Each structure stands twice: as structure tokens, then as C-alpha cells.
Please model this.
Amino acid sequence: MANDLFKMPETAVSTDEFIKGLWRENPVFVQVLGMCPVLAVTNSGINAIAMGLATTFVLVMSNILVSSLRKVIPKQVRIATYILIIATFVTVVEYLIQAISLDLHKALGAFISLIVVNCVILGRAEAFASKNTLANSFLDGLGMGLGFTFALLCLGVVREILGSGTIFGIGLFPDGFQSWVVMILPGGGFFTMGAWLLFFNWLKERNKKREAALSESGTGVK
Amino acid sequence: MSKINKTLEIRTSPHIVRGLSTDDIMRNVVWALLPVAGFAVYTFGLTALVMLSVATLSCVLSEHILCRLNGRESTIGDWSITITGLLYGLTLPPGLPLWMVAVGGFIAVGLGKFLFGGLGYNVFNPALVGRAFLQAAFPVAMTTWHPAFADGRFFSLDGATLTVPFMEPVYTAVTGATPLAAMKFAQQPTAAYDLVFGFTSGSAGETSALFILAGGAYLAVRNMLNWRIPAAIFATVALLSGILHAIDPQHYAGPMFMLFSGGLMLGAVFMATDMVATPLTNRGVIIYGVLIAVLTVMIRYWGGLPEGVMYAILFANAASRHIDRLVQPRVYGTLKQAKRGS
Model:
């Protein structure tokens, strides 16, 4: 069994590990992981970016550490060890945010500490970093983190425009904008998430159809 | 009758076909709704007429565009979307900015009907989905009521109706509280006579119990509406509020008030009876009606909002599949579960 889990890692550094997290295996729109911060703190663009970057930092650092320690960590206590590693970096990032902007820290609230239990991070540690080389794990963490940030930004921008009529705090409408209260509330998170999922799945379907049509015409010529 | 296939069909039972297509039923529901809509226009004037038209048009247009975008044939010909639009308009307060009406109409069709697969697949009543979204998004505009029977109502629009999209409405007319709000927040009952005939303020189509009941009776007689649903709702509401009113008349309004105020009539007769989102068996339908009634009474008496019919119906819609499973009829010739076990 142990051999299955720690099978020979691929040693070649592959940029695909970076790109896959951005789009093909996007943690939010494809894997639908880490929904708690995605729905809770995306009520404005700034919050979304801050949350995304904080998660990216923790993801990259924990991937690096887990990957470099993957031969040392005993299999039986690996989850506890991963959580310990993640929690360490979450503490770092929490103090960091507090130092940079107290307002932001207040806006994100408990969700900074809750990065510990974000399943994207534990998922990458368990599914990728524990089996792959340091360089690849770093790229994977960075790609997944940026993909996560991108997804949060998608939600945050829509919710901020409809919910408060601003984008990154800059007013878009003249005075007297009617805010869509539901968009700031968690319910709006679900609506927006659903709409984005619909859009991305539609895009994917369309691409698939195009590829199918292309390959079909290719065989037709033959 | 025109829809009957004239060719000879060889098939299993049932052999007797009643020439009643979806279109026929839907068209009849529209006829039944027209008096209600007419009274709404009489009560609230031009504002209501414009609002109802925009509500219906936005729903029909959304359906047409969504069908086309999805590469399907447009289904606006079967009248079902006209009902949704008309019902949706009737649940809105007159004077609601038209851009909000259009947004809600699109949500009603897109989220309430189309995403689930169109007619016959909607889990919730689409009209109420649209209204619930508006209630969540624009709570202030949705609870600002236009006074009924205002002077010159047939020649002027309420100031807020033509608000520029995405802008906050500015109200000019003095707004009247609905009977339910007056009861809940000021303990001010309204005379039963006014409630029955609809001389009160409220959403466009909910004020006149008389016209709603007439429309419902017409449909029930033609067997296009399951009379058990409104009957179960009315009976349970009357019973519950009767008991509570007897215990504490100060806090709890009596059965007459509960039955004829707010959206209960419109909801019970036209919304709760949505053919798709209701249970299938007669027993299930009664459970469904009782559930709506209990929830409505609970929300009205103990909830934070004065009105709860919309949420009660949406909740019961969600529960109706489970109710169906609960009361599944025994297949003829099989034993009951308990007997089979022994």
C-alpha cells in the first residue's frame, strides 16, 4: 500500500502543473472545492483578491514544505502533519494581513483563520505535494492558488457591481444607486457562483463541440 | 379539440382521450386570471396596467430568447409563460420600478423555469421564484405600497414606476400600509367587507378575494385546478387562526381576516395549484395544502414579516416530491409493507 501512495515521482519540471490549476482543473469552477470562503467573502473585489492571495500564499508554502518533507512524514500521521504545516502558514498570513490593513482583517474576519480547513489546500497537499517533486509542487500550488484567486475575483466583481454599485471601491453609477441587497448576502454568492459555473460549463461544452467538429472534418478529408 | 390526432392509433390503454391539451388548460387559466387583473387595473389605475404588461412581456420575451439561445423551438405558444408572467405581475406591489419588474421576470423564467428544463420540470412556481428574488434583492421597494383608488389613477403613473434602471426609486405618492402590515405592526384590523371586495392596498392582484375565488371556481368546475389544494389551505388556516384567536384575540387576528387579507387567496388558488410543482395524489395534495397553511399562519403570527404565503408555497413546492413518496399508492395486488415483512 505504501508503494501506491509514494510511487515514483515524476522528476521533470512541467509547466503544465502550473497551467492546469488556472483553467482545466480550476479549484473552484471545476473541482468545486473550498466553497466556504468562495461564497462568504466575495462580496467585494478587494476582499476577493485579499482572500485569494492569502490562500495562494498558504497553498504555495504548504506545498513546498509538504513536498520536501514527503519522505520523512509517516503515513499514519500525515493528515495531522499537513494540518500543522498549513496552520503555521495561516497564522503567518493572518498576522501579515493584520499588519498591512486592519480594515481588511476586519472585513475577512474569521475566514482568514478558516483557511486552515480550506479543502483546496489539504487536497493539494495530500493529492499532489506528497507525491511530487518540490519544483512541481511549487508550480502546482501557485497555479491552484492563482486559479482560486481568479475564481474569487470573478464572483467578487459581479457581487460588488450589483451589490454596492462600485468596482474595487470606485463608484460606477451616479448617486442614488439601488443596491441589490441579496448580492451582498450569502444568497447572492450562490446565485453568482451558479451563473459562473453555467458560463464556464457552456464555454467548455462549446470548445468540446468545436474540437469534435474539427476532428470530424479531419477524418472526412481522409 | 383541434389538437387531437386524427390518425388511427394502436396502443395500450387508456383508450379514451379527452381533447384537453396543455394549451387549452393554460388558456383557460389566463381567462380566469383576467378579471383579477382587470380589478387590479381598476384599483391601482394606469400604474398597475403598465406593470402587468411589463411583467408579462418580460417573462414571454425571456422565455423566447432563452429557448432560442439554447437552440430549442420557442415555447411561448403554449400560454404557460403568459400565466407565469401575469401571476408574477399580480404578486408585485403597483408602483414598483419597471426595471425591477423586468429583472424579476427574467429571473422567474431563467431560474424558476428554464434551468430546470422548462414546462413540466419546474420544481418551484416560477412566478414566486421571481418575486422571492425581488423580495431578497430590493426589500424596500417590494414593501412600499401604492395607495388604492387614488385620484386620477387612470391618467398618471406612479412617480417611481419609470425609475432609470439601477437607480433607487423615489416615491411621490403617500404609501398605504397593507391590512397585514397594519395588523402586525399597529394592531389595526381592517373591516372584513373591505377585504372581501378588495378596497385595500396591497400587491396588484391580491386585494380582491371575490374575483380570485370566482376565477378559481371556474377552473375547478372545469376540472383544470385541483380544488383540494385551496380547500385544504383555507380550512387549515381558518382552523388554526380560529383556535389562536379564541385563545388571545389581542395578538392573533381572526379567521376572516387571515383568509381574506394579503396574498393568501391569490396564492392558494393560483400559485399553490401549479400543476407541476404539486404532489400527484389526492392525499398528497391535502398534506401539501395543510403544510402551506401551517407555514403561512406561523410566518404571519410569529415571523418577522407580515406576509408569508410566498415562502410557504415555495417551501411546500420543494417538499412536494417527498410528500409524493410518502403517500405512494399501493400497487394493486401487492401487500402492505408491514404484512410483507411478517
